[in-house]
Amino acid sequence: MGHISTLAGVVALTSLFAHQVAAQSCPGVTGRFQPKMGSGYRYSVLATGLRNPRHIAVDSAGNLLVTEGATQGVRRLVLQDQGDIVCVQSNTQIITGSTNHGIALSADGKTLFTSNLASVTAYSYDASTGQVGQGKQIVTGMAFQGTHPTRAIATSKWNPDTILVARGSQANIDTSTTNQDSARSMIKSFSISQGTQSAHNYNTAGEVIGWGLRNIVGMTEDANFGGFWSVENQMDDVRLNGRDIHNDNPAERLSYHGVLNATDNRYKGLNYGYPSCVPAWDPQGVGINGLLVGGLFKPDNVPSVSADECANNRMTGRLHFHAHTAPLDIKFNQNSTAAYIAFHGSWNRNPANGYRVMRVDFKDGQPVHHVTSTTAQIPVMENTNIGACPNNCFRPVGLDFDAKGRLFVSSDTSGEIYVIYGA
Fold this sequence. Notes:
The protein is mainly beta. The chain has one domain: Neuraminidase (6 Propeller). The chain has 3 helices and 35 strands. A 6-stranded antiparallel sheet has the order 3-2-5-35-34-33, with no helix packed on it. Strand 33 and strand 34 form a beta hairpin. Keywords: Signal. It comes from Chaetomium fimeti.
């Protein structure tokens, strides 16, 4: 447990033409930046001064739970409406220790899950009081071996005994992940109830939902249609036939994994190609005849496969995004007409790209845009000066909706939480 302090926020209203008007404020805190909002959206700054906030979750009582950095644990922000914005009534640290990224709640809201680079831990949780029980590791065996220490986690309302855990590669090109037994670059599902009895070892237990996925940092379930989705950070410094094509290739990826408990789920267990096959964002820059956006190709210096293997025997994404924009989370709105994606922003590209929250429109459980579309993203919240990124801008990481349809967004670099209205 920790101390309680009062936090507040600032709201900047934005017209349909992104024209800024007079701001409303909660008492106390002003945000560092003034984001540019997409048509129909406005925002407020809920909290500042947090320590590297990553993924977030809204509990059943409408409180916001925030993971902070590698060793800072979890904070609980109790919220209160003030006019047409929301402010923080109190801020308490409810879990201490190593929780470096992931957070999720059980379908009934009574169990809180966190992840670090080695394990997933479950705590009993009372949303009305913020009381947490003693932690119990339910998934182990993911000790850090290189790059990509985040362990994204997600739970299922359609299959409440299931928790999903993503584990990324241990290098930019992790050659051993051509073997499923490496237990990296994949998403696995585990029984929560069995894990509370005896912890699952990620290397040997669980069901593979998808593999050949370089680094999954955000996952979610569509509560209305049951589909499970992931967003992936793809390979850096890609070369083909000795040419540097990394600035615009490969594409980041939104992948569909089907309805988890459906007996006819043809997507479960598919291989998405990494490290041998990566998706194109700029096919012309790749220079392979007939290659389309999202089509898989084999770069230099990756484990050898035939061109036919990439084209015909590996699964590609449902939508694709500009190279190096780094999607870190995805959440659906209440009626599943849109998915919102947090793009943390590039480091391996000049000029920079990303650093924004975008919307992808859906109908009947699937994106409305074709798999080859390059215009599926609709601006929601962007930096006014992307040239100041990454150090002097907001960098979105975690997303979650509350029951009133407000979208909460964490920014790790700036230590802030934003609220988007109109999502």
